[in-house]
Design a protein that fits this description.
Blueprint (H helix, E strand, L loop, with lengths): L6 H12 L5 H14 L1 H4 L7 H11 L6 E5 L5 H8 L7 E5 L2 H10 L4 E4 L5 H4 L8 E6 L8 H14 L5 E5 L13 E9 L6 E8 L2
Parallel strand pairs: 1-2, 1-4, 2-3, 4-5
Antiparallel strand pairs: 5-7, 6-7
Helix pairs in contact: 1-4, 1-5, 4-5
Bound molecules: S-adenosylmethionine.
S-adenosylmethionine binds next to helix 3, helix 5 and strand 2.
Length: 209
């Protein structure tokens, strides 16, 4: 599998990711309704743009045979971008806490493993067949809005499912959304795009030595 790294690949990815997903109007409406109900848990009123998804895909692309785990999949825009870039559905696992979003993910992402639950329980929720196979973790959950001990619980969960790998996290913050030194992490802002509302960055966090 060719990683979507080069400029031309990115253009292709953005085009694919921009392809309206099935029932996209329903997705946007659902997203907005869930934001009204849980603004802090959602962290955004609309799903991520194609431009942001393409950057997440580039940063999270796994090695051959490895599985991608996405936490906080929402209406599935990042998942669809991964599939459009060539990730086989049986190498993608998504976790989402909102039951009606899970229902939509199950309808629209055939072959993908969709788990309903709290990402902090990822180690318990992950089916045995995926254990030891997670190559990259994408976190779309707005960690910046959480107190430090709660952030820690997410980070511990990600470390439990993909020890030593770290994770990709996208955020609208100008500076690191996580106090990374407190969490013994190294932070790198890999990408930024103004083509998202609001403009967003893609961060890579890895455990410090
Ligand atoms: C900012 S939205 C991102 C959605 C999608 N990834 C995107 O880019 O459009 C955050 C998502 O995380 C989900 N979420 C929040 N807390 C969660 C948790 N503890 N476990 C699983 N999902 C959670 C929300 O329901 C929401 O769908």
């Amino acid at each position: 599998m060719t990683p979507p790294n080069g400029t031309s690949s990115l253009a292709v990815d953005e085009k694919s990711a921009a392809t309206p997903p099935r029932k996209s109007g329903r997705g946007a409406l659902l997203f907005f309704r869930r934001w009204l109900a849980h603004p802090l848990r959602m962290g955004s009123i609309i799903p991520s743009s194609a431009a942001l998804c393409a950057r997440v895909v580039r940063q999270a692309w796994p090695k051959d045979g490895e599985v991608v785990l996405e936490l906080g999949s929402g209406t599935g825009v990042v998942a669809r971008a991964l599939l459009a870039a060539g990730l086989p559905p049986d190498r993608l696992v998504v976790v989402e806490i909102e039951p009606d979003m899970v229902e939509m993910l199950r309808e629209t992402l055939p072959g993908v493993t969709v788990i309903q639950g709290d990402a902090r329980e990822a180690a318990r929720l992950l089916p045995a067949r995926f254990q030891g196979r997670i190559g990259s973790v994408i976190c779309g959950i707005p960690l910046v809005l959480l107190p430090v001990p709660e952030q820690r619980r997410f980070i511990d969960a990600m470390n439990a499912v993909a020890p030593g790998r770290g994770f990709i996290h996208f955020s609208y913050c100008v500076t690191s959304p996580l106090p990374y030194k407190k969490h013994q992490l190294v932070a790198k802002r890999e990408e930024w795009t103004p083509l998202n509302f609001p403009p967003a960055s893609v961060w890579r966090y890895t455990p410090s030595a």
